[in-house]
Amino acid sequence: MPKLTLQLLSETFSIHSLPAKSKIPEQVFTANIYFIGKTNDEVSIVLPEHIALESDDIEPNWKALEVVGPLGFSLTGILSNISGVLANEKISIFAVSTFDTDYILVKNSKVSSAVKALQANDYQVLGY
What is the pTM of this model? Predict the structure, then answer.
């Protein structure tokens, strides 16, 4: 599979955890980009950190690398390959997928190392 291009987004994100039966706060929907995941046990919300949200737990200071798409559903190994490169460098990720593409979030303090590792493995990273 050919290596893909990633775009470093300018926003810094926070990852919030809320109780499973929580109503999604209205301010989430004012963001230009957000991700919501719900299970039987929790609601997770990824939101630009300048938007305040009351939550049970919060992980601040994440940057997002968008896999430039759209990506076809027949493509395989995209997250596996990228996460493998970053795992080899001991860089933790938080991954989110949409219909068209994938987003890999890394801690702000690890962005430089993540970009260098990806570039060393023939990924193009825009916006860095």
Answer: 0.88
